[in-house]
Amino acid sequence: MAVSLPATGHEVLRDPRTNKGTAFSSHERASLGLEGLLPPVPSTLEHQVARIYNELDNVESDLGRYLLLSDLQSRNETLFYAVLMSDPARFMPIVYTPTVGEACQKFDHIFRSARGLYLPITASGNIEQWLSHWPVDNVRFIVVTDGERILGLGDLGVGGMGIPIGKLALYTCCAGVPPELCLPITLDVGTENGELLEDPLYLGLRQRRTRGQDYMAFIDEFVLAVQKRWPGACIQWEDFANFNAVPILATYRDRICTYNDDIQGTAAVALAGLYAALRITKGKLTQQTFLFLGAGSAATGIAELIAQAMVPEGLDIKEARRRTILYDVGGLVTNARQDLTDFQKPFAIDHPPVASFARAVRQFRPTGIIGVSTVPHLFDQEVIEAMAAINERPIIFPYSNPTSRSECTAQEAYLWSDGRAVFASGSPFPPLDVEGRHFVPGQGNNVYIFPAMGMAILATQASRVTDSMFIVAAKAIAEQVRDEHLAMGLIYPPQSSILEASLHAAFRIAEHIYDLGLAGNDRPADIAASISSMAFKPVYGNAP
Ligand code: NAD
C-alpha cells in the first residue's frame, strides 16, 4: 500500500512500514541514498516470500517460527503480511493459537522488541499523556487485554500482550484491516501468578492485581483517554476474566464503539455453524431445540445469541430462550435450583431434575447438542446414538477446547451416528474417512467473525456494536459455505479462503450498520467495492 517515506535511506530501512529490504529498486536506492546499505541486486517481493519460507522450513519448533515471523513484523510489515496472507491456514496457528499461548507464557524470556502500548496501573492519572507517546494520530482499532485469562492458560500478567498483537495480525491477514490503523494495548494491573511474581525476568508490575473500584476507575480513565486521543476508535476487549469482561462490556457497549470477542464473537461463530448446519438439515432456526452441555459463559453467550436470532423469525424472547436448554455439572438448569447465577437464570425452565445428559436428550429431543463443558468424552456413544435415533441429521457440536477436552471426537460422532452427524468442534480435527465416506470437520473458530467485524466497523465508522451485527455476521459466514463443502460435512468456509469470506461478511455487516443508522459516514453506492478498496494489500508502495 502507498506510504510516504521518511527522509534518509537509513531511516527508511529501519521503519517496518516503509522498509522493502532487498526489494528496493535501483532507482529507489539511488534516490533514497540506500546504495551500499543493501546487497546490490534487487529482489522481488515473491523472492523475499520464498526466502522466508526457506528460513521457516529450517526452524524446528512452532515457537521458533513464531519468533522468526515476529522479527519479520518488526522489520518489514509488508513482507510479514505477504507471507501470512500467502497461506493463512498455515500461518494462523503460528502467529495466533495455539503457538501464541506458548509465546505469552514465555514472554519475559523471549522478549525482543516492543510493539504496542503498555499501560500500568501505576500510571493512573496520566493515561492521557501516555497515549500521546504513540506516534500515530489515526488509530481506529484497539485490541486490549489485562492478561488475566489468556486463552485457557490463566493469568499471564503483562505476557498477555502476545494476544492483542497476534489477534490484530489476524484482523489484517483475514479481513485486510489496515495495520497502521491498529494498536495493541496491555493494561498491567498486576498479576496473581506467583511464578511470574518470583521470576527475576518478569517484565510486568510485581504486585497482586488491583480489583474493585480502583480497577474500574483505571478502565474508565483508559476509555476516556482513548476517546480523547482517538475519538471513534473501536475498543475490543480481549481475554479479561469473565467477572471483569461482563461488567466492562455492559458499562461501555451503549456509550462507545466496543465489543468483546470472547463473549460476542464466540456466540456468533457457533450461530454461523448452526445456520450452515440448517442448510443440511433443512430446518428453520425457530424449529430447533438445542441442548447445551455446560452452562458457563460460552453456553449462556451462545444460547442468548441463538435466542436473539429467533426473535426476528417470529418467537418472543422468552419462548426463544426455552429452545436453548442448559445442562451443567449440577444437572438440568431449572428454576428450582438455588445455585444459578444471574446470567443462567433466563434459561432456567420449570422441570423435574433429569438424571443424565443422555436422558435429557431423550426427553427434550433436541435437534442439536452443543458441548461447552470443558470435560472430554461426555458426548458418549449413548448420547450420540440417542441423537441419531431422534434426528435424521443430528447436529453435534463439541466446542470445548483444546482437542483433549472435546466432548467427543469427529470419528466418534460420525461412527455412532452412521455418518449422519452434522459436526463442528472448537478445536480442529483432521479430515477422516468413516465407513467409506470422506469427512472434513469444521472448526468453530472466532476468526470467522472478528476480522470481518473489525473491517465493517472501520469501513462504516460505526458508533456502536450491536448483537444484531453479530447475527448478520453469522449468517454471512454461513452463506459462504459452498454446497460441496456441506457435502463433506464442512460447515465453515475453508480457512484457505478466509479473506474472501471475511470481506463478504464485512460487506453484510456494513450494510446492516448503514441500515441501523449507526454509521459515521455516508453509505457508498457500492459498499462491497468500497470495503475491498480499503482493504490492506501486502504489496509495496511507490517510493517518492
Ligand atoms: P465455564 O467454566 O464458564 O463453563 C463450563 C461449564 O461446564 C459450567 O457450566 C460447568 O458446570 C459445566 N460442566 C463442568 N463439568 C461438567 C460435567 N461433568 N457435566 C456437565 N457440565 C459440566 O467455561 P466456558 O468459558 O463457558 O468455556 C467452556 C468451553 O467452551 C471451554 O472448553 C472453551 O474452550 C470452549 N469454548 C470454545 C469456543 C470456540 O470454539 N469458539 C469459544 C468459547 C469457549
Q: How would you characterize the overall build of this protein?
A:
It is a single chain. This protein has 544 residues and is of the alpha/beta class. The protein has three domains: 9-93, Hemocyanin, N-terminal domain (Up-down Bundle), CATH 1.20.1370.30; 94-256, Malic enzyme, N-terminal domain (Rossmann fold); 264-447, 3-Layer(aba) Sandwich (Rossmann fold). 45% of the residues lie in helices and 10% in strands. It is built from 24 helices and 14 strands. The strands form three sheets. It has a seven-stranded mixed beta sheet with strand order 8-7-6-9-10-11-14, with helices on both faces. A five-stranded parallel beta sheet has the order 1-3-2-4-5. Helix 17 (357-364) packs parallel to helix 18 (381-390). The site of nicotinamide-adenine-dinucleotide (NAD) has 24 residues, from helix 14 and helix 15.
What tags apply to this protein structure?
544 residues; alpha/beta; Hemocyanin, N-terminal domain; Rossmann fold; seven-stranded mixed sheet; five-stranded parallel sheet; 45% helix; binds nicotinamide-adenine-dinucleotide
Question: What's this entry about, in short?
Answer:
The chain is an alpha/beta fold.
Layout of secondary structure:
Blueprint: H1 9-14, H2 26-32, H3 45-57, H4 62-75, H5 77-86, H6 88-95, H7 99-105, H8 107-110, E1 117-120, H9 127-131, E2 141-145, H10 162-175, E3 182-188, H11 194-198, H12 212-229, E4 234-237, H13 242-252, E5 258-260, H14 261-281, E6 290-293, H15 297-310, H16 317-322, E7 324-328, E8 331-332, H17 357-364, E9 368-371, H18 381-390, E10 395-398, H19 410-416, E11 422-425, E12 432-434, E13 437-439, E14 442-443, H20 450-460, H21 467-479, H22 483-487, H23 498-516, H24 527-534
Parallel strand pairs: 1-3, 2-3, 2-4, 4-5, 6-7, 6-9, 9-10, 10-11, 11-14
Antiparallel strand pairs: 7-8, 12-13
Helix pairs in contact: 4-5, 4-7, 5-6, 10-20, 14-15, 14-21, 15-21, 17-18, 20-23, 21-23, 23-24
The structure holds nicotinamide-adenine-dinucleotide.
Residues 152, 266, 269, 293-299, 328-329, 372-375, 378, 399-401, 405, 426, 444, 446 line the site of nicotinamide-adenine-dinucleotide.
